[in-house]
């Protein structure tokens, strides 16, 4: 994975930094990010578009991992940014992210969130539904402000991990349906509003997708509609945003394509379709989250207790679990791991890695081969960079781990470890007065 190596002491090294030294300095659990790998992934997407001579924007879907330092890094790499809430927008503003490169998503943006986006003049708002369309028009009218928008459409394609099925009418909470006239009505209303400047259309067909078929089908369906609307509405959007969802390899079961490959095939097909339909080539925007950060992140845990269930299995428990990585419990997600302190030793034991939460479902990895593992060994779980920290929680009042960035042999703390005091920061005591009146 990335710049991960085994050093002379037999320790796992990431970004030129010995992970055992990181554990000594910061403790466990600990999220470690390989900055060089994030840069490499970001550049690969950008360079593919440049090579193809396509006008494009690559927006990082910050829901995958949003912290001030991460957004500063994305800014440094010249990407745009996708935010989906006031909180993510606030983080972007604190990171001094260029507002004109921020795209604001969400299927139920509140009035306050829209006002915040308008006040800070974000680059565009991705309008999801009629309620939002009306609210945004009225807010802009009140403020006498014009805002750039994309219209989010559901193209009627369900993408799954390894396959896809066509659904006539997509059953989704997101976007305007492309098939039943909703999308056309929305586009017409938006084009008629003098406060909404329609840049283009957006779709997102799913996440952790391994094929280009779904993306291509979605693009074709949208372009065909665009050709119809060119006649019916006399309007052709300039931007086609094909969303994120490019898959990555968590274990050998996963067979993703190279990011450049997704982009190249998509562009080729869009080119063909636009020629066939006599449409101008649109600007292509994408918004990868997972594929930019997942394999750059590794979580380090200390091994604590273990339990042998004779003839069945051995449970080995770590000092974290579903509080720092919800994905196994929520999606049955699979991960690979090794012992970071004995990275060059041959696997001997078949063990199952348990978290520390009071919940039987808090299992990080079932049936993992490790050297004869014991208390105080350090477990490194790979590919936890996306939707790990961002979905971390305080179940069982467990504090969230810190985040460290490593690059060229240097480490930098970018999120501090949560303290017990932090956990209680919002709690207020039950007062005497309340007791008397109740
Ligand atoms: N754009 C839109 C509109 C999205 O809804 C998403 C993800 C993305 C982009 C980025 O997708 P990515 O490239 O990261 O696949 N928590 C789940 C993933 C939820 C994805 C939601 N939307 C997980 O841990 O697998």
Automatic annotation (TrEMBL):
List the catalytic residues: 358
Q: Which residues form a coiled coil?
A: none
Q: Name one GO molecular function term.
A: diaminopimelate decarboxylase activity
Top EC class, one word: lyase
> Acyltransferase as a keyword?
no
Reaction catalysis annotation = meso-2,6-diaminopimelate + H(+) = L-lysine + CO2
One Pfam family here: Orn_DAP_Arg_deC
Family under the similarity heading: Belongs to the Orn/Lys/Arg decarboxylase class-II family. LysA subfamily.
Q: Main role?
A: Specifically catalyzes the decarboxylation of meso-diaminopimelate (meso-DAP) to L-lysine.
- What is the designated name of this protein? Diaminopimelate decarboxylase
